[in-house]
Design goal:
By secondary structure, the chain is α/β, with parallel strands linked by helices. The protein is 35% helix and 12% strand. It binds 3-methyl-2-oxobutanoic acid (KIV).
Length: 312
């Protein structure tokens, strides 16, 4: 039977007017991998030899260094990315459409994300672990946001959380920070507001740039330790970065931010289909896994696997 095309669910068609493709679409160490704690080439910007902490990201900005962030949703990728020197791992609500098979990030729940977060946190020895608060888990009130943030730090073993939204959420950020929950702010295109924003659209063009600067300043004043910008013109992102003292992280926001983030399945070429303009694919895992599965199936069907060397 012909397989359905699950990846198509991750790819809303590009629309008009700047709309683009949706970007979202501790076990044993791998042989040959550096041990946890080994500084890697990738750690040059921000990471110390031990655990990456918020102040290391701050130092990176102060020194003009850069750091890398990737999503991770389970044990092995967390371990691999951690050992590769990725400074920040994000348990993104993009798990919704990259793990759970949803069409967008909206349906994923706190109870679905918490076990993924725990798995990543247990597997990564160096990276800073940041968890997304999913849609509906922080918008109602500052109290709701604090309660959800506490769950991610306590049950998910996260070290910080990320919430989407602009200056309106400054009081929420303040309450969370006062409760001891470090908060990364996410502005620009915020996928949880996809319907309110009219689809996947670049934010902060032209006169709208000032809105993003105001958002960033308000969120940082409230205590956000970092500001992530998604699908923002490079010059706007540079202006936001210049307006605030904390590190910025970009995804589709040009090259002036302190850090960059990508969804790992996009970065490594596991997801098929059309990629957003800002995605660079560094591998073709989809091809490699497909080839491995086909070869395995052929060997099973032909009787060459298992051979004597795999038999007792
Ligand atoms: O959920 C997510 O993956 C994100 C990104 C910034 C990549 O929020």
């Amino acid at each position: 039977m012909a397989p359905s095309n699950p990846e198509s669910r991750n790819h809303p068609e590009s629309g008009t007017n700047h709309e683009t493709t949706a970007p979202y679409g501790s076990g044993p160490s791998a042989a040959g991998a550096p041990s946890a704690g080994t500084p890697s080439a990738g750690a040059a910007g921000a990471a110390p030899s031990g655990r990456v902490r918020i102040h290391h990201l701050q130092q990176a900005k102060a020194k003009g260094a850069r750091f890398a962030m990737l999503t991770a949703y389970e044990q092995y990728t967390a371990e691999i990315f951690d050992q590769a020197g990725i400074e920040v791992l994000l348990i993104g609500d993009s798990a919704s459409n990259n793990v759970f098979g949803n069409e967008s990030s909206l349906p994923v729940t706190v109870d679905e994300l918490l076990p993924l977060c725990r798995a990543v946190a247990r597997s990564a020895k160096r990276a800073l672990i940041v968890a997304d608060l999913p849609f509906g888990s922080y918008e109602v009130s500052a109290e709701q946001a604090v309660a959800t943030g506490v769950r991610f730090l306590k049950e998910g073993l996260a070290q910080a959380v990320k919430i989407e939204g602009g200056a309106y959420y400054a009081p929420t950020v303040r309450a969370m920070v006062q409760a001891g929950i470090p908060v990364m702010a996410h502005i620009g295109f915020t996928p949880q507001s996809e319907h309110a924003l009219g689809g996947y659209r670049v934010q902060g063009r032209g006169d709208d740039a000032q809105r993003l600067i105001d958002d960033a300043v308000a969120l940082v004043d409230a205590g956000a330790f970092s500001v992530l910008m998604e699908m923002v013109p490079a010059d706007t992102a540079a202006a936001v970065d210049a307006a605030i003292k904390v590190p910025t992280i970009g995804i589709g926001a040009g090259n002036a931010t302190t850090g960059q983030v990508l969804v790992w399945q996009d970065m490594a070429g596991l997801r098929g289909g059309k990629m957003a303009k800002f995605v660079k694919q560094y591998a073709n895992l989809r091809g490699i896994l497909g080839d491995a599965a086909r070869t395995y199936a052929e060997e099973v069907r032909s009787g060459t696997f298992p051979g004597p060397e795999h038999s007792f």
